[in-house]
Amino acid sequence: MSTELATIIDFLRPGDELVVTRLDRLGRDTKDVLNLIYECEQKGAFVTVLEPHVSTRGEMGHIVLTVLGMVAQMERRFIKERQRDGIEQAKRDGVYKDGKQRLDRNHVMALHADGVGPSGIAKLVGCSRMQVYRIIESCA
Known about the structure:
This protein is mainly α. The chain folds into two domains: 3-77, 3-Layer(aba) Sandwich (Rossmann fold), CATH 3.40.50.1390; 105-139. The chain is built from six helices and three strands, in the order H-E-H-E-E-H-H-H-H. The chain has a three-stranded mixed sheet with strand order 1-2-3, covered by helices on one side.
């Protein structure tokens, strides 16, 4: 749970209503969503989801939110599986390179030794100035 959401829940009072745009904004999986709803109920507050419009004010709302939470969790799993399958296919086709390209530390240090400043190095190698500072500091 994000610190912002935890702060909001801390401020909830009996009769308050926590309104979220979509169910997946409440938590990563069904357990997170149900725990959050339980916390709100313990404080006497209600949870309302705008898309689709569901509220915990009635018993039916609890059932619908539980089912929707489970569906959202399944959807995330399916997306991850499709992504993993796509990466595997791209690797077989030779078009996938693992992760971001790493910076050549030796090149950064050579530029630094030649008197190029951190901003100039960052522009030349295509990274942030902070990354250049970290490399220079770690190699010093």
